[in-house]
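[audit] Reproducing an earlier prediction to check determinism. Same input, same settings, fresh worker. If the C-alpha cells differ from the archived copy the diff job will pick it up downstream; this log only records the rerun itself.
[audit] input (452 residues):
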Amino acid sequence: MPSFLCTLTQQKEVVRLGEGEFVDQYLQPEAMDRAALVCRKFAELSRSYGAEEILAITTSAARDAKTRRTYATPASRRRLDVRVISGKEEARLIYLGVSSGIHLGDKQAAFIDIGGGSTEIIAGDQRQYHFLGSVNLGAVRLTTLFFLPEEVGPVAAERYALLQRYVRNASVRTIQQMREQHIDLAFGSSGTVENLTDIAVRTLHNRQRQRDDVLTYHDLKQVIEMLCELPLDARRKVAGINPERADIIIAGASILDTLMRDLGLAEMRVISERGLREGMLVDYLSRNGHAQMMRDMSVRERSVLQLGHACGFDERHARHIAQLTLELYDSAQKAGLLKLNGRSRELLGYAAMLHDIGAFLSYNDHHLHTYYLIRNAELLGFDQSEIEIIATTALFHRKGLPKSKSPEVNALDKARSQNCAGPERIVAPCRRTRPQSHGDHQARKVARHQQE
C-alpha cells in the first residue's frame, strides 16, 4: 500500500448482530438497533476526519438472516452503502488482510478466522490464495444452538464432545479439501483465537502475550479443560480472558480445537492486528490504481517505507545509503570476509534505509531515537528478532561499536531466544499427522536451539 498511508484513528465496538438469530434466522430488534447505532457513530467519526467515501460490509449474521433487507434500512438512511458479502468473499478479504502484513517467503500457510457466525479457512502463499473455505460455525452461533441463557454452570465433558462432533460434521468437506493443500505453518486471527492465546500465556506461562507468541495445541487443550470446569462467573475472572467473551469462549474453542486436530496443526501463530478490515483496505487500494505497486513491493518493503515516510525521512538519501551499504556487503562477501546468508543482507538493507529516521525527533543522538522508533513501530512482515537486528544495526551506524555487555545487544540475544529463529518455530507437522505430544514438542524446540 502507499508508503504515505497512516491510521488516523482506530475504533472497535462489539455488536453481536447474530445474537439470538441462529435458531430461527431472524435478526433481533435489539441487535439491529445496536448495529445501527455503531454505524451512525463510526460514520460521523469518519466524516469528521474528512472522509468522502465510507465502505461498510456485513457478514454471516446478515447473509443468513431472513430480515436482511430490514437490517440494511437504518444504515441506508445514514448514507451508508452496506454490502452483504458471501462466506468465500469474507475468506478472500481475510486472506488479503493477514497475508499483506506477514512475511511468508516461499512457504504456504493455513489461515483460520473464527467469527461470531462463521469460520473462514484459507490456504495460500505470499502472493495468492489456493483454497477459500467458509463454514457456518461461529462462537455466537454455537453458543446459541447448544446453550440456554440460564445455563451458567461448568460444561460437562459430554456436552463439549457433542460440540466437537457438530463442528466436525459441519466442516468435514472443508477439512478434506484443506488436507489436499501443502501447509507449512498456520495463522489464527479474530478475537476468539487471540483471547484463547491470552489465557494460555497468562495462566500456563505466567506472563503477558508477546508479538510473536504461538498457541500450541497442547496449551489449547489445557485451557479448554480449565474453562469447562468453571461456571460462567468464575470463567469471567480467569487471567487473560475478555469477560465479554466468557459466555462464548468455550464454543469458539471447540471450533479451534477440532480444526487444529483434524488438520494436524501442532501450533499456530496469532495475528491480532490484521484481518477482514485490513483486507477491505488492501482490496480497495488494489482496485483503485495501486495494484501494480501491491504486486511489486513486498510487505516488508512497504512497511519500512511507511515508517520512513511517517518520520519524514529523505527517501532518495536513504536509498542511496542502502545501495552503498549493500555494495560493501556484497564485496566483503565475495572476498570471503563475511559468511552470512541472504536474510542478513536483507535486514542490513532495511537498517540502512531507516538509519536516520531518529532525526525526526532530534538530530542530536538521532541514532538512539532511530533505535527506539524501529523497535516500537511494529513493522509488518518481521518477527521480533528481525526487528531487534534492524534496530541494533541502525543504532551502531555511527562511530560507536557494540559491546557484549550493552543492553541493546542483550535485548537482541533475548529476542532471538524467544523467537527460536522466527517463522520456523511455527512450522506445522505433516498435514496428515496428529499433533505430537507435549514432550515431543519440547524436544523439537530444544533441537532447534542446539542447531543454532
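[audit] rerun output stored. Observation attached for the diff report: Residues 297-425 form a domain with the Hypothetical protein af1432 fold (CATH 1.10.3210.10).
[audit] end
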